[in-house]
Structure formats: C-alpha cells, structure tokens
Design goal:
Helix content: 25-40%
Shape: elongated
CATH class of the largest domain: Alpha Beta
Radius of gyration: 28 Å
CATH architecture of the largest domain: 3-Layer(aba) Sandwich
Number of helices: 19
Bound molecules: S-adenosyl-L-homocysteine
CATH topology of the largest domain: Rossmann fold
Structural class: alpha/beta
Oligomer: single chain
Length: 515
C-alpha cells in the first residue's frame, strides 16, 4: 500500500442488490455493520436501510433518473472527503455498482486521489428482476445469450441504441432505465425487423413486495404498461423467454408474497418473527420503536444473586421477556459468575418463563423452563406460579422496571416470599431516522400492517410517528394488553389467538396469506 497516506480511510463501492434484503451479499451486510459512514442512493429499500446500526453516520445522495438530487461529481467528492478524514466509507448502490451504476466514475476519482478502495459486486437487477418475474434470461431452447442495454442518455445527451444489431441477435434483451422511452425502444426493434409477437415484459420494483409486471408482445407492450400505470424503477425484457413468465411465476405463489410488514421490537429479538415472515415471501422492515437500557449498577440484583446460593429449599427465577433473559445472562458473564455457582448451592432452583419466546431465550442459555403458562400474561403467570411453587419457596422476579403489577397479588396472597428485581428499563424512544421514509410508505399503502409484541412497542411507535394519523395503521397485537394500548391510539387492531410468535405468524397468515 505504499503511496497511500497512513491513517487514510478507505471506500467500498458496494452493491445492495435489487431490493429484497436477502439478496444483499454477505460482504455488503458485514460492511453495513463495520463502516463509519454510509453514502446511499434512493433505490436502497427500507428493508435494507433499517438494518443500518443506529450510530452510523448517513449521507443520502438520492438520485433518480430525471431527479438528480446530488450531482455525480459531488458524490465522488463526498467519498474522497470522508475517506480523507480517515473513515471507512461504504458507498451503497442499488444492484451491482458497475452495472449502469456510475460506480466507474466514483472509482475514477478515488484512484486519482490515491484513496484505497474495494469494489463489492452486488446482485444486479438485470438478472434478479426477471428471475423474480419467472423469466430465465437464458434458456437452452430459445436464448443462448442475453444483452443488457441502457435506455438512458449518455454524457452528451444522446441515446445510442443499435437496433439492427439487437434485432439480429434474436436472444434476450434487457433494458434498464428505459421505461420513459419504452414506446421508442419497441418501435426501434420492430423497425429493425423484430416480429410484432415477440414476447416482452415490463417489471416494476422487482424482488420487493411492490413487484408488478406486465407480460405481452413487442407491438403492444407500451400500451399495456401504460394501462397498468407501471412506474420506475422498472426493467424491460424482450425475447422468447418472457413467455415462461406465467408458468414460472413463483413469487406470487408464496403465502405472503407481495406483503410488507413492519416489526417494532428491539433489534436483539425482532428477527425471529421477521425471518419466518420473509420465509413465507413477505418483506419485513425491522424498526425498533423501543430501546432497552440495563440498570447499572444494580445492588438489588447483586444482593439477590448472593443470597440465592445461601438459601436452601425451593428458589424460583422468573423471567418475563427475552430481553430480561439476555440482560441477566450477559450480566452473569460480565461479572464472571459461573452458572454452577448460582445453581450449585443446597437450593433447588426452578425457572419460570412468561411465554414461549422467553422460554426459547432461556433454552439458548441452556435452561429449559419448569413453568410456562398457556396464556401469555402477567396475571396468569402469577396465578400459576402461586399454585405451583412451594409455599416456603423464594421467588425472584427478574424483569423490566415498572413491569406489570398484575404479577404480584396472587403470589402475595399465597404468602410466598417475593423479590421483584428490575434488570432493565424500556425507553420509548426508537429510531427516528426513517420517519419520513416510513410516513411516505404508509401513506402510499405500501406497508400492510405493523406488528406489536408489547404495549411499550405501541407507545414507542406512536411517539416515533407523531403527527401521522394512527387510525390508518393496521396493528397486529400479540396479546390483550398490547391490543388495548393500540386501541387507545385508535389503530385498527387484530389480536393473536395465542400470545406467542407462532400466534403472531398464524394471525398474519390468516389475515394476509393467500389460500
Ligand atoms: N446498478 C443497478 C442498475 C442501476 S440503473 C443494477 O445492477 O441493478 C437503475 C435502473 O435499474 C432502473 O432504472 C431500473 O431499470 C433498474 N432497476 C434497479 N432495481 C430495480 C428493481 N428492483 N426493479 C426493476 N428495475 C430495477
């Protein structure tokens, strides 16, 4: 690396794929976590943007055909300037950075300025968008090559498309940035000798929940696209392979294909539901609306832990959230408290979890809960615990500050010794970075519903979206408390039959799934 200044930053020119979050490469996903500053385009989907850790510096250089918010030269200058500050700069671009992404121009300046850089290829819309529309760009029977053409003007304002050559090739033609000139392109190909009935397709917002397509033939594809009011970003595909689209149309067959949901839990445990929904074909925007903060120092917890090993008889540890479980075990690790020390005394340690998600979190720590109530709520947990626990046992509740008061009365009534220890507090101050983007998406009806898994996530969301008419929100609620809170904000509510992630998934499938 001689010639490069010490301490120099570095730039990664990376592709983010065509929209579906899972088409992000492993490398770009890692760089999103590691970069100091992220410079991104308008084409990057909300599903991907909301993955960006909170403390990252962001620079939006949103650029769309016909609406150049930040000129290309300025973008290149920003990259150089940020790298010179010694930062790791991630330039996040739609699709692949070197396929009509002007990545070449950005690299030009970096090379000239001797800024270290890497190029991270991405999944390009040229092949991915047809694939999601059921169109293989090549096929042994009818297309032995495919050609990617831009419908955008060159630097001098001219568009040069060699229609006679394209028509002669006769294989698959993929046009990017061509929607505005669709009629002109079709006419050019027809005049160059292509048959009127050559299959053609236009695909809008490919790979995302908003994907729409029009399949027809070259002579009327423009008219059909207009009728369907196809908007950018869209790609045009011409060739026999378009005829496969209907029978190969797999995306719409996914149970939640075309659906988009928003989840609001804190990052550490939002992904389980999100993963399942994605598996069923939905796009899921994970946008935490609450934050949790560990209570530190925590003398009550220290005290409770110290005394636990000293006692004999039955001792219960009660967890009421997956976050509580992770805060507790992280705390043990940090204090270098060996789990054997906790369990090894003469006491018989029992563990209770409020619901299946909490029980699953405990399993990850190697503990299978002795008690999980059928119905997820604090009162029920208190009642069952009072019935199950030995009257002389000691119960330590490990949960959030200001947890539900309903848990305690049944235990007091049974005369059981209870200690309520707060491990963490919940702050209803979620991310505000994406409020504007989400507001737009909600207004356009692009988000089918918002999933809430606690009353605090409802409050956090309401606070985050202040000013937005919440009565328009379809709220999917895990249980009655959560629903009550959502109803307080006049949201349109649905509640899961069983208060668990399974219950939430069932509710979503029942309301939004195709049968
Ligand atoms: N570098 C990008 C292309 C940038 S040019 C890539 O490799 O995909 C922008 C054009 O790409 C758009 O005008 C549109 O033609 C196409 N495009 C990008 N994402 C798309 C999507 N999700 N659906 C349809 N077309 C898309």
């Amino acid at each position: 690396m001689s010639g490069y200044r010490e301490q120099a930053g570095k730039v990664w020119i990376a592709g983010a794929g065509p929209g579906d979050r899972e088409l992000l490469t492993v490398k770009t996903a890692r760089l999103i976590k590691e970069a100091d500053v992220i410079v991104y385009d308008a084409l990057i989907s909300a599903e991907i943007l909301t993955q960006i850790p909170e403390q990252k510096e962001l620079i939006h250089v949103g650029k769309r055909s016909g609406n150049h918010t930040v000129p290309q030269e300025e973008i290149s200058r920003i990259l150089v300037q940020e790298a010179k500050k010694g930062k790791k700069v991630l330039r996040l671009k739609g699709g692949d950075p070197f396929v009509f992404g002007r990545g070449g121009e950005e690299v030009e300046l970096l090379a000239k300025e001797q800024i270290p850089f890497e190029v991270v290829p991405g999944v390009t819309s040229c092949t991915a968008v047809p694939a999601y529309a059921g169109i293989p760009v090549t096929h042994r029977d009818c297309a032995s090559s495919f050609h990617v053409i831009t419908g955008h003007a060159q630097r001098d304002g001219e568009i040069r498309i060699d229609f006679p050559s394209l028509a002669r090739l006769g294989d698959t033609l993929v046009f990017l940035m061509g929607l505005a000139r669709l009629g002109w392109i079709a006419k050019g190909l027809l005049e160059a000798g292509m048959k009127k009935d050559t299959p053609a397709a236009v695909v809008e917002n490919g790979t995302t929940a908003k994907q729409r397509k029009v399949i027809s033939v070259l002579s009327d594809i423009e008219e059909k696209a207009k009728e369907a009011d196809i908007q950018t970003p869209a790609i045009i595909i011409v060739g026999e392979v378009c005829a496969f689209s209907e029978s190969f149309d797999w995306t719409v067959k996914r149970k939640l294909g075309g659906r988009q949901f928003l989840t609001t839990r804190p990052r550490q445990n939002s992904s389980r539901l999100a993963k399942r929904l994605r598996d069923l074909g939905a796009q899921v925007i994970e946008m935490p609306s609450i934050r949790t903060e560990e209570i530190l120092p925590n003398p009550r917890l220290e005290d409770a832990l110290a005394r636990m090993g000293e006692r004999s008889g039955e001792q219960w540890l009660v967890f009421t959230s997956p976050i509580g479980v992770s805060v507790f075990f992280d705390g043990l690790r940090r204090r270098k408290t060996d789990i054997r020390k906790l369990l090894g005394g003469s006491a018989v340690i029992k563990v209770a979890a409020i619901g299946s998600a909490t029980a699953a979190a405990l399993e990850e720590a190697g503990i299978f809960a002795d008690l999980v109530p059928e119905k997820y709520n604090a009162e029920e947990l208190g009642r069952i615990l009072a019935e199950t626990a030995d009257k002389n046992s000691h119960i330590t509740i490990l949960r959030a500050e200001a947890g539900s008061p309903m848990l305690l009365p049944p235990l007091y009534k049974a005369g059981i010794w209870v200690e309520d220890v707060a491990l963490y507090r919940t702050c209803t101050e979620g991310e505000s970075r994406w409020k504007e983007k989400l507001t737009e998406m909600l207004k356009r009806g692009e988000i089918d519903a918002v999933a809430f898994t606690s009353a605090s996530t409802v409050r956090g969301f309401a606070q985050m979206m202040e000013g937005f008419p919440l009565s328009q929100i379809h709220a999917l609620c895990i249980g009655e408390q959560t629903e009550k809170e959502a109803a307080n904000y006049h949201m349109q509510t649905e509640v899961a039959l069983k208060a668990s992630m399974d219950g939430m998934e069932k509710l979503i499938l029942q309301k939004y799934g195709i049968r």
